[in-house]
Amino acid sequence: MASAQLFLNGARVNRDFREALFDAANRAGVTPNEFCITAAAEKLIAGGRRFPGVFQVNDFEMVGMLPAGSSKAA
């Protein structure tokens, strides 16, 4: 699967939210951007969207999310 750049910037958030986001990302061992993108992917899957992975093919299969093309509900 070809990769594509995703630029997310310009959002202004409450300081407490920012601290909570950075803390959660740090505890998960990922960057805040990766944490947000993963959360968005989880929401897309829950809404019925299917794609082969986020950062690489089948990466969600490793964390219990269903891969693209699965006939089971997420």
UniProtKB/TrEMBL annotation:
This is Uncharacterized protein.
